[in-house]
Write a structure and sequence with these properties.
With about 90 residues, the protein is an all-alpha fold. It is built from 1 helix and no strands.
Length: about 90
Amino acid sequence: MNEDDARRLLGAVEQLREGQQRQLDCQREALAVQQEHFAVVRRQLERAEALQGRAEQLQTRSAQVIGAARKMLMFLLPVVVVLIAYVTWLIFR
């Protein structure tokens, strides 16, 4: 192996090293972008969980209100019917 071959070999090795360095830099950038994306997704997931919790609370309260309204209707409807019958009896008596 002469000096010319050694220089070409050294040049090729340096080019390989530079290519590997560029590849590592690109991988670092891609990893940074992925980490940012993961952080965004995590925040969105936390917000979605909070919204889901509030939605469940609203549904529970709505169910309670509807249950109370049904109970009141079961009580008030017969009373209203009796009052209408009484007023009708008073009018036509």
